[in-house]
Structures are given as C-alpha cells and as structure tokens.
Amino acid sequence: MSGVYDCLVIGAGPGGLAAAATAAEAGLQVGLEDDNPAAGGQIWRRGNAAVSVSHSAEQWMERIRSAKVDVLCGWRATDAGTDALGTPFIRVEGLGGFRDLRYRKLILATGARELFLPFPGWTLPGIYGAGGLQAFAKSGFDVRGMRVVLAGTGPLLMAVTAHLHEAGAKIVAVVEQAPLSRLMSLGMHLAPSAPGKLMEGLRYRLRTMGTKYYFGHWVSEARGDGKLERLTITNGSESFAVEADLLGVGYHLVPNTELAQLLGCGLENGFVRVEETQETSCTSIYCIGEATGIGGVDKAQVEGRIAGFSAAGRIEKARSLFAARDKQLRFVERLAAAFALREELRGLAQENTLVCRCEDVPHGALRECHSWREAKLHTRCGMGPCQGRICGPATQFLYGWHAPAPRPPVFPASVGTIAAVDEAGVHHE
To answer: Are strands 230-234 and 218-223 parallel, antiparallel or unpaired?
Structure first.
C-alpha cells in the first residue's frame, strides 16, 4: 500500500491486534506490521491451543479482516525518520527489500524478550531460552522422549512446561528461583482480585501433575561433551545433579524498547513511559503491552484498546477502559515482586564464563570495566549480531550498567536498506 496510514501499529501480538482492530473499527485506515510470518505473537503462535483468554486469536483476526486492516507480516522495523513533506515513517525490511511505512499516529506493541543470566556451561548446545524452546516445539522440533529441565523464573515456565509435556517431552524438573512463600503470597492476592489468572496457573499445574517443582532453586552449572548432558541445581546451601537433554531457561522478561528509544520516547525504570491514554512523551506515538510493564495478555489487550481509541480521538471510549487497565497494572506490581531476582544469581558467572556470546567476552574481562561504553571500547561487548539484546540486560543485572539509546538500524539490515533513497527522495546514512 502506498500513501499514509492514519494509524500504524508495530507488533501483531495480542496487544497489537487489539489496537489495530479498535482503531480501524473507529474509522481509521490502519496498517499492522510484524516481523513474524503470521500475526499472534509468541503467546498465540500457531499450535498453542492451551491459552485461555477473554478473546481468542481467531476472534481478533476476524475483526482485523472485517475492519480491513492492512496486515504486513515478515517485515522488520529497522529505522525511523521523516520524509521531505514532514511525514514520519518507519522503515521496514523483508525478503522483498525495504518499505517506508508512513503514518499520522503510531502505536508500538513491540513486546518483550527473555532475560538470560550467564552461568558456567550456558552456551552448550541443547540450552535454549524457555520461550525459544517452546517456539521451536511449536514449529515442529520433535521433543518426544527428550529429558527436559525448565529453569529460571516467571509464569512463562508453567506455560512452557505444559506445552512441552503435551508434546511428549519428559519433564525432569521445573526449577523456579523464587521462593514458594512469595508465590503463595501472589496466589493469595490473585484469589480475590484476579481469579482467572490464578485458575490459569492451576490448570497448567494440573496438566503436569507428577512433574517435580523446585522452588527457591536455580541452575548453577551445565556440563556435557559437546552438548548438554547434566545440570547442577542448587538452593545456595545444597546442590544435586540431574541428567538432561534440553534446558529451557529464562529469568522472566525484559521489554523491547529499542524502537521507542530511537523515536525519542522517554523511559522510566526501564520501560516506556506513557500517559493515561497510552501516549508516550512523543506526541502521536503510543505504546502498549510488555514494553510499558510486564503483565501478560490481558494487560496488553486492554492497553491496545485504549491506544486504539485514543489514536482515533475517541477519548471517552478510552477512559471507560481505565479501570480495567489499572487493575492489570496492580497485577504488574505483584508479579514483579513475586519474581524479583535473588542476589545469588549475580555470583553464578566465573572468570571464564562468557557474558557476551556474540563476541566471546568473558565475565573476567568485563569485571575490569566500569561502564557499558568502556566495555564496548575494550572488549567489543554488545557489538555482535544481537547488538546487546542478550548481554545488555545481563550486564545491567550483573554490573549495574545502562546501555545508551540505540542507533539505526535497530536490527541488522542490508546495506541497501540502510543507504537507500526512499520514495520521497530522502537519503539515510
């Protein structure tokens, strides 16, 4: 499509679908972009029928189709700018080259990624992010009969455990670093305030009855001859070993804020700062979902609807959803408290444990540095293909560093995309 979208939504997960459908049904011409081959995000990735939410993916997609939203999947946002006429755009790259998507209003639904913390042996083949392992299984990776350990923290572990169990994996253990007392406290809060979320967790647990759960424990080491063979699990005072073929590990989630930062949106406590209408510090740019606070599907959807109405100027409709959104924000606070990372995790990495996998930079080299910038200059930490997406949050947890705002391209892109002249004759360097 050529021309200018009234509203462009970046990210087609549950929140992005809700935002796009709401804005289009309010009369706007809407574009919806995502770098995955199909809409739905991680939670509604094809093959996941286990998630119970107020609106299914099929219902939202039907609303997207009925409202004639222009869906562009398989395109990744790499840059942002303004053309010669002063119209802002997002540059996206796909197999067919690049496109500049012009817009009047922008809604960012960029989601989150897993937090990985380095420990001895974490780079062995057979070790995945918990969500990444689930995605592989959904895409056809055969886990039948394989011995799997899920470790880290957060509610994602339960969902992944249930999915892999049903896919035929032998779940050896689920290792949650948060103590059971904190999780019981969370459950007591959810019982009166969010019984649906509590029941969802119980359903996951019932589907995996017999699986061993270790609360207040974490993986301290992985060993194997060329691939994962065994893991050491500890609670800080006692340790034991388990044999495993696969480890899915992730220490909750960190928000994807790179595009928002590139556009100049302000952050607060690591998340994109938004007003009550979901508008960021940049006029006509809104942000929703995990990028504004880790809270799951329900939060993303209600924020998406608020942003969609706000972008369309339907402020009273947006206001009618504030109470529902505030309830989800209270859940965000409880979730963060329940799964807060324990101090012992800072001491897992040894001198030769890689922290930056792209550039093979060990913990011992980084401990000599005093900032992210110094580490980049002296060790190339964060300068590999992931551009600090993996090691950046890890170094923030380990050393207290804060990475500077990203520069384009947000993701690795071809030289042709970076240096091309766009349709309006603007050259990007």
So the answer is: antiparallel
Per-residue pLDDT, 426: 45
Distance, CA of 153 to CA of 86 (rounded, Å): 45
pLDDT for res 42:
72
CATH topology of domain 4-112+254-336: FAD/NAD(P)-binding domain (3.50.50)
**Residue found by looking up tokens 């409880």 in the block:** 334
Q: Are 346 and 397 in contact (CB under 8 A)?
A: yes
The pTM score is 0.91
Residue 38 three-state SS? coil
Pairing of strands 147-153, 170-176: parallel
> Where, residue-wise, is CATH 3.50.50.60 in the chain?
4-112+254-336, 116-251
Q: Out of 149-163, 197-211, 244-258, which region has the weakest mean confidence (pLDDT)? A: 197-211
Burial class from Cβ neighbours inside 10 Å (0-12, 13-18, 19+) for residue 24 reads buried
Q: Residues 166-217: pLDDT tens digits?
A: 999 999 999 999 999 999 999 898 888 878 887 877 788 788 888 999 999 9
Interatomic CA distance for residues 284 and 286, integer angstroms: 6
| Mean pLDDT over the full length of the chain | 91
Which residues sit opposite 152 in a β-bridge?
176, 250
Calculate the dihedral angle through the C-alpha atoms of 235, 173, 14, 279, rounding to the nearest 10 degrees: 10
* Amino acid (one-letter) located at 233: I
Second CATH level (architecture) for the domain 116-251: 3-Layer(bba) Sandwich (3.50)
